[in-house]
Design a protein that fits this description.
alpha/beta; TIM Barrel; six-stranded mixed beta sheet; four-stranded parallel beta sheet; 12 strands; globular
Length: about 350
């Protein structure tokens, strides 16, 4: 695990100043994101982070109060601070109903979870050892010996089982009304073809009544040739498009644009703008997101989010720059800015509680 930059120094990178500096920035806006914002037309805006368990975030005194060492204490504290969180663990391992029920038990009934789709559900590889025992034991010997597998490698009945176990694992959240959406994050080798669009529609069909949203990681979906077709496809099928703020100028870059393709839900994920590590290999994943947004960078999104909230009944804003307290600080700052923006335009207010 990378060393946490607990101390700042003059001349330090302003986007990586250390958790002490980020913590100081959070003090004036400590409660800003605790409740959803509601616009005058009734749209709900929830702001939170894309993780609550990253080791750099759970380090003593970084985000959680010292002594909050158990999983229950951490999620309880998080849910008192933000009204939404993204579950990243479901990308690496299929969810368990027992664990999902624990999430329900530790959070208030209006707290929302967005869950990332498992890697096999979006054409990405998974570690064989992370698959449930029932699936591992059903693998042909040649597949069972591989360290990593893709869905295309699996027999059809095991591909079906992955989807069924994923949906079953989240049922406690569905039953409590706390599952916001499943994030289908497709990799940078997922290009705009008829086959890809069919895969998106198949994913939605397999998820049934569970709401899903799509994030792309290839610039080709939004080049001059494909942008209009991509947005029309999502709109025609009522599939929420995940707007992003992230590094630009790379093959996996998506432009930071406003596009609402479903009247039910709009989403924005903030990845940071650390271009030098975004596509790097052989580094800890958290290093890609080790970026503290400046106030000016966050302010760019305030009118965009307000605009998007005018087109959807619900909006989720998730800070995926979850290194240390960078994401939690930026979430609070952005919530404070949005609250002021809504009040200034006489469009809405903070939801009570």
């Amino acid at each position: 695990m990378p060393k946490l930059p607990l101390e700042s120094s003059s001349g330090a990178n302003p986007h990586d100043p250390g958790s002490d500096v980020a913590g100081e920035r959070a003090i004036p806006v400590a409660r800003a994101a605790a409740s959803p914002l509601v616009t005058a037309r009734g749209a709900t805006i929830r702001i939170g982070t894309a993780s609550w368990t990253d080791p750099t975030m759970t380090a003593p005194g970084v985000f959680y109060p010292r002594g909050s060492d158990s999983a229950e204490e951490r999620l309880t504290y998080y849910a008192e601070t933000f009204p939404i969180v993204e579950v990243d663990a479901t990308y690496y391992a299929l969810p368990s109903p027992r664990v999902a029920q624990a999430w329900v038990d530790r959070t208030p009934p209006d707290f929302v979870f967005d869950a990332k789709a498992h890697a096999l559900m979006t054409g990405q590889p998974t570690e064989t050892k992370r698959l449930p025992k029932d699936i591992r034991e059903a693998l042909p010997a040649e597949l069972a010996s591989r360290p990593r597998l893709y869905a295309k490698d699996l027999p059809s009945e095991l591909r079906d089982a992955v989807w069924q176990m994923y949906v079953a694992g989240l049922q406690p959240l569905v039953a409590s009304g706390q599952l916001g959406s499943v994030l289908l994050q497709y990799p940078r080798w997922f290009f705009p073809t008829s086959e890809s669009r069919d895969s998106i529609l198949e994913a939605r069909q397999r998820l049934g009544d569970v709401r899903s949203a799509v994030e792309f990681r290839s610039e080709t979906w939004f080049n001059e040739k494909n942008r209009e077709r991509t947005l029309r496809f999502l709109t025609d099928n009522g599939i929420p498009f995940v707007m992003v703020d992230g590094p630009q100028g790379l093959r996996s870059s998506v432009p930071p644009m406003v596009a609402v393709t479903s009247p039910d839900l709009a989403l924005v994920r903030f990845h940071g703008r650390r271009a030098e590590t975004w596509e790097a290999t052989g580094i800890p994943v958290v290093e890609r997101f080790r970026y503290l947004y400046s106030s000016e960078e966050l302010a760019e999104w305030v009118p965009r989010i307000r605009e998007a909230a005018e087109e959807a009944r619900e909006m989720h804003v998730l800070m995926n720059n979850c290194y240390a307290n960078y994401g939690s600080t930026n979430a609070r700052e952005l919530a404070s800015m949005l609250e002021a923006e809504l009040a200034g335009h006489d469009l809405g207010s903070r939801e009570p509680g």
